[in-house]
Design a protein that fits this description.
cell membrane; olfactory receptor activity; olfaction; mainly alpha
Length: 159
Amino acid sequence: MIQNCFEVENYNSCKAKLKHCIQYHADILNLAEQLDASFSNTMFAHLTMTSIICASLEKQFIEDDKLCAGLHMLAWIADLFLACVAGQLLFNASESIPHAVWISKWYQTDVRLRKDIQFLLLRSQKNLYITAGPFGILSYPLFVSVMKMSYSVLCLLTS
């Protein structure tokens, strides 16, 4: 959206498009902040329970019913993976905003608009994310760390 902002030669048209982009970005920042506030504690509980449940299912897989426990465990892992993918996609999308500004034709605009662009770039330096309590942010590394925690709990259960 920001890449097409500076295609028009008219200052007022460019300013209106840039204002729309800035407002859209501010709305997304506000929404991400609300999402994080709403789901942080819930995601922490979900990740903790998922690692314990996966460890229990891994133990059941090792000792008893392989098919049923394996399918159940895969469903829990898929659920966790989808949550982490959503968090990673939000993080990646927020990182792409400065790049989108730089590949646009910002250098051909009026000096007054360039100052607004600088503010947008400064604001976009803070990445968007959804936290999972003290675990960190929902991302691929968090998925790996929850799987490691699940294995640690499995080792504790089998010893």
